[in-house]
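Weekly structure sync - notes
Attendees: PM, LS, DV (DV joined late)
Agenda: review two folding runs queued last week.

Item 1: First target. Sequence and C-alpha cells pasted below for the record.
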Amino acid sequence: MKILIIGASKGIGLATTTAALAAGYEVRAFARSAADMTLSDPRLEKMPGDATHQQDVEAALADVDAVIATLGVGLGDLIKPVHLFSDATRVIVAAMTEKSVKRLVCVTGFGAGDSRASIGVLQRVPFQIVFGRAYDDKTRQEDLIKQSGLDWTIARPGVLLNGPKSSHYKVLRDPASWRNGIISRASVADFLVKQIEDRTYLHAAPVLVN
C-alpha cells in the first residue's frame, strides 16, 4: 500500500513517516519543505506542495491508498486567526472524493470538537488564551471530516513530547474517560499508522495519552 502523509516534514508528520516506513508501507511525504527532509528510504517519495492548493493535493493523491493528515502551525501563528486546518481539510476532502481515495486518518488534539468540554476548569481559560484560535479551527476541521462521507478516524493527542514510543499509551474512546495528559509523538505516530488498515476506530475521535 502507498500512504500519503500530509505535513510530513516535521513533528508528528515526520514521526509518522518514519513509523509507516518501518511498518513496510510505501510513503509519499507531502509538505512545503518536503525536499529538505533528511530521511532517506527506497520506499519514500518526497513531494513538495501546499495542502491548501487543490492541484497540489490532487497530484499527491495519485495511486495512493490512504491519507494521514498531520498539519501543524508554529507558535507564532497562535496569536492571530488560524484557518490552515479547515482550509486545507476542505481541499483534502474534495480531492480525496474526486480521486476516490476513502481512508483518511487525521490528527487534531485534545480540546478540539466535543473533547473541549473535558478540559479541566482550571485549564480552560489559559487553554483558550493560548490555543483557542488554533483549536477553534481544529474543531472546524473535525466537522468537515465528519461530514465528508470518507472512512475517517480522528486522533486527539494530549500534550506532545519527544521521546520513544510507549507500549502502554491509552486510546480513550468513551467521552467519560477523556482527559488531558502527555504522550510522545512516536506513540501518536504508532496509532496513526495502525489505523491505515485497522477499522476499530472508524468514524471515531479518541483521545490519546500515556
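Item 2: Second target, run right after the first with the same settings.
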Amino acid sequence: MPVTDVITDTENLTMTVIADLAAPVERVWEVYSDPRQLERFWGPPGWPATFTSWDQTVGGRADYTMHGPRGEKAAGTWEFLEIDRPRGFAVIDAFADDDGHPDPDLPSMRMTFTFEQTAEGTRMVNTSHFASAEALEQLIAMGAIEGTTMAMSQMDAVLQDLRDYAQGKGTQVTLLDDVHVRITRLVEGPRELVWRAHNEPDLMKQWLLGPDGWEMTEVAVASEVGQSYRTSWAPVGDTEGEPFGFEGEALLIDAPRRSVQTERMIGMPVETLNDLNLYEEDGATLITLYIEYPDKETRDMILATGMAEGMETSYARLERELLAV
C-alpha cells in the first residue's frame, strides 16, 4: 500500500499521512486536480466519492459526497487556500450537511498536500491541522487513520494505465484489514457488457460457473434495491461435489458502475457484504469486488476454500465466451 506512515501529534494538533507513490510529481498533481480521477480514491473502499462541484482556484470550492454500501451518505467540502502547481496545495476540509454547509458538530481542518520528487517517484505528505485536541481525537475515533490508509491503497490503479496496472495478473486478492478484502480482475471488454454479464441470467449461466464440470441450475436476479436474489450450482456428469447456492438482498444498484448485495450460502447463517465496482478505460474493464466478512476467522475460512481460484476460472471464461465475441 502507498501509505508508509501516519503520524499524530497531539502537541501541535496535526495528523500527517506520508505516502510513497510510483509516479512522477506531475502525474500525482494531475490526479489531485481532476475530480474524475480523485473520486476513484478519495473515499475509502465501500465509500466512493462523487465530486459535484470543482473550482480549483484560490478561494474556489469543491463539494463531494461519499456513498456507503447500505445507502449511507457523508458529504464534505474543500475551500482552496493555496495552489502551488505541481508541488502542492492547501484547503479547508469540512464535513457538510445535506445543503453543502459545513457541519458545526464535526471537525474541520486545514489540510496541506505537498508532492516531492524521489528516486522512485513522488513522496506525498498530507498534513491536517486541527483547532483543538478534541477535534483531532474525534477524527481519529471516527476511523480517519484506517479510512485514509485504505483509501490511499486504491491509488496505484489510478496512477497507472489500467492495463499496465492489472493486465495479465489474473484475479488478485488483497487483505485490507481483518474483515475487508479487495478482489480485482481486469477483463478485456466494455463495462456495459461486463455489467450485463453479472446481471442477466442467460449470460450468467455461460460464465459464472467456477471450476469446469459445474452448471448453474438456478438464477433469480435482484433488479431493484430491496429485492432478493438466489443462485445455485450443481456438478455435471462425473464431477464430484454437492449442489450449493447463495442468496441475499440488493442494497445498492448504480448501473453499470456499482452494485452492493448481502450474500449467504443457502442454509448457512454467515452473511457477507459484497460491493462490486466496474471501471472502464480504453475498452478494458477493471472488476473490483470489496467483501466485508463478519470476522477474521470467517474471512480466512472462506478464502481457504479456493474461492479466488474458482473466480479466476470464471473470469477467464467470461473473456473467452462473452467478451471476445
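Discussion on item 2: The chain has two domains: 3-160, 163-323.
Action: LS to circulate a short write-up before next sync.
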